[in-house]
């Protein structure tokens, strides 16, 4: 099964994976406790979300005593990059330059932001020369 984009996950699955990324590892009770501040969920509801995320390739588990501990298969940054690539493909027909042009034109960038962009561009140029 191909891993879905972060944007394609449901609200609960997204909240659960965010908790796992935050904690680094967690069992059902720990995830449920973290979610309790937002809404009250049954143990089985949280377990089902964890199992679906595991089936979808987002998580893996290992046994610790009588319970499973769930661990992420990738980082939040990796998932964000995949979502960004999908966004660029769908909205800008895969052309990152169009996205940058749009962002620069339509955003109120401050001088500090522009300096930081210039430094990133200069750094990328040096990297490309190697």
Describe this structure in words.
With 130 residues, the protein is mainly α. It has a domain at 6-72: Arc Repressor Mutant, subunit A (Orthogonal Bundle), CATH 1.10.10. The chain has helices spanning 11-23, 28-35, 43-55, 76-91, 96-106, 111-129; strands spanning 59-64, 67-72. Helix 1 packs across helix 3. The longest helix has 19 residues, at 111-129. The mean pLDDT is 93.
Helix/strand layout:
Blueprint: H1 11-23, H2 28-35, H3 43-55, E1 59-64, E2 67-72, H4 76-91, H5 96-106, H6 111-129
Antiparallel strand pairs: 1-2
Q: What would CATH call the class of the domain at 6-72?
A: Mainly Alpha
Secondary-structure arrangement, i.e. CATH architecture of the domain at 6-72: Orthogonal Bundle
For the record, what is the CATH homologous superfamily label of the domain at 6-72? Winged helix-like DNA-binding domain superfamily/Winged helix DNA-binding domain
Low-confidence stretches: none
What's the total number of strands?
2
H and E string: HHHEEHHH
Name the helicity range.
55-70%
Which value, in Å, is the CA radius of gyration?
19 Å
Biggest pleated sheet: 2 strands, antiparallel
Number of helices: 6
Percent of residues in β-strands: 5-15%
Structural class: mainly alpha
Distance between the termini: 38 Å
Average pLDDT for all residues: 93
Principal-axis shape: elongated
